């Protein structure tokens, strides 16, 4: 069963996925739920066509496709949530997971690490610690005559 929900997904301050781009599918969930697990469609699948999305810039789309390429099927990102007994809580969980996944994928790469050398003090402290360890082990040995 496909349906739509009226809630947009806020990824970051400048990026909001409109509800019109999301599609939902509901099915029966395994796991907790008692007698209702056999009748209620509490499992949620949230699908978003990232490749055809209008809210992403060209750079964001390229980054997202590069980083989430193995999770995309035909450009569509699917997230399943079935950890809660209630469908509404699973919808919220799927929205939150989508927002976190997209935010991480479209974030700019971290600046490259600048190589540094250990300071003279840190080298001396390391060597002193090694010498203390050597002295401790030497004291544990049997005395030689």
From TrEMBL:
Keywords: Hydrolase
Biased composition (Basic and acidic residues): 121-145
GO MF term list: peptidyl-tRNA hydrolase activity; ribosome binding; translation release factor activity
Region feature Disordered, mapped onto this chain: 104-145
Residues passing through the membrane, by range: none
Domain of life: Bacteria
One GO term (biological process): rescue of stalled ribosome
SUPFAM superfamilies, sorted: Release factor
Entries under Pfam families matching the protein: RF-1
Domain called Prokaryotic-type class I peptide chain release factors: residue spans: 15-140
Gene3D superfamilies: 3.30.160.20
Signal peptide interval: none
NCBIfam families for the chain: PRK09256.1
Similarity remark: Belongs to the prokaryotic/mitochondrial release factor family.
PANTHER family, A to Z: PEPTIDYL-TRNA HYDROLASE ARFB
Stated name of the protein: Aminoacyl-tRNA hydrolase
Source organism of the structure: Microbacterium testaceum (Aureobacterium testaceum)
Lineage of origin: Bacteria, Bacillati, Actinomycetota, Actinomycetes, Micrococcales
